[in-house]
Amino acid sequence: MSVRRIAPQQSLAEIAAQQIRNAIVTGAFKLGENISEDRLVAQMGISRTPIRDAMAILSREGLVNVRPKRGSFVFETSLEDLVAICDYRQMLEVQGVRAAIRVDRDGFLATLGEVIAKMETALAQADIMEYGQLDSAFHQAAFDHCGNSYLRSAYGLAAGRIAALRANITAPYEARREESMEEHRRMLDMLAGGNLAAYDAALTVHVQRTAEVYQKALAEGHLGPDKTTSVKVSR
Q1: CA distances (Å), 6 to each of 1, 3, 12, in order?
Q2: How far is 86 from 83, CA to CA, in rounded Å?
Q3: What pTM did the predictor assign?
Q4: Residue 35: strand pairing partners
Q5: Nearest Cα residue to 141 out of 207, 188, 200, 199
Q6: CB contact set of 196 (below 8 Å; sequence gap of 6+)
Q7: Which of 7, 188, 231 shows the shortest CA–CA distance to 101?
Q8: How many helices (H) and strands (E) does the chain have?
Q9: Can you tell me the distance from the alpha carbon of 53 to that of 123, in angstroms, rounded to the nearest whole number?
């Protein structure tokens, strides 16, 4: 008897997790914000069970903290934790870039060029959310082209938190986005020219600057939940 392969379908919990994850990594949900289960049930039109399962998924990814009898909250960070994330990211990205250059140089550089062009457009249009997502795509490209699933998975452990921190930290600062854009241009030029030592130094500055901006954002009250707005999650 012959049987056909059954294509896996997403469960309601996976669909809900994907939408909540997107709200977190784009900054629609702020760091430390309570994610109301009642509101998600009403907005998504599904029961509490898949919502709770979605929170369990996001908890394993480090994006949500589930507190018994209190609810689910977007993760929060500290300067010490941020420094650790930056170090982890930098170590992996250096290796990811080298693997991508070795395995698929032309495809990798082409992807970076396309992302840079879109970043320029988003910056010109002051589309903060789009710019943040493209910034994430620029750094993800190395792992998409590295040809090593273990390296890709290792970066994936922190990719969501990195994207969420990027959205929360850089959103208030137009000057930082301009500076970031120039740093990405220079890094692409260095990689295209095969100057990996210069790229490593530029990446160090680019990544470690996050801690400086974090301190500024924290001092100026830009981090943490916004009490005046509510986030809508699509059905």
Answers
A1: 15, 9, 18
A2: 5
A3: 0.83
A4: 72
A5: 188
A6: 97, 98, 101, 190
A7: 188
A8: 8, 3
A9: 37
CA distances from 125 to 117, 154, 163, 174 (A): 13, 34, 21, 12
Whose tokens are 């301009």? That residue is 178
Q: Using an 8 Å Cβ cutoff, are 104 and 145 in contact?
A: yes
**DSSP structure class, residue 1:** -
Amino acid at residue number 78: S
Q: Is 12-74 a domain of CATH 1.10.10.10?
A: yes
- Is the Cβ–Cβ distance between 23 and 29 less than 8 Å? yes
Neighbours of 11 (CB within 10 A): 13
pLDDT string in tens for the chain (235-residue length): 567 766 567 788 899 999 999 999 988 898 899 999 999 999 999 999 999 999 999 999 999 999 988 989 999 888 888 889 999 999 999 999 999 999 999 999 999 999 999 999 999 999 988 998 999 999 999 999 999 999 999 999 999 999 998 888 776 677 778 889 999 999 999 999 999 999 999 999 998 887 788 777 777 766 666 544 444 555 4
Closest CA to 165 of 209, 103, 120, 121: 209
Question: What distance in Å separates the CA atoms of residue 184 and residue 45, rounded to the nearest whole number?
Answer: 41
Of 87, 73, 80, 16, nearest in space to 45 by CA: 16
Assess contact for 51 and 65: CB atoms under 8 A: no
All structural domains of the chain with their residue ranges: 12-74, 79-219
Architecture of the domain delimited by 79-219: Up-down Bundle (1.20)
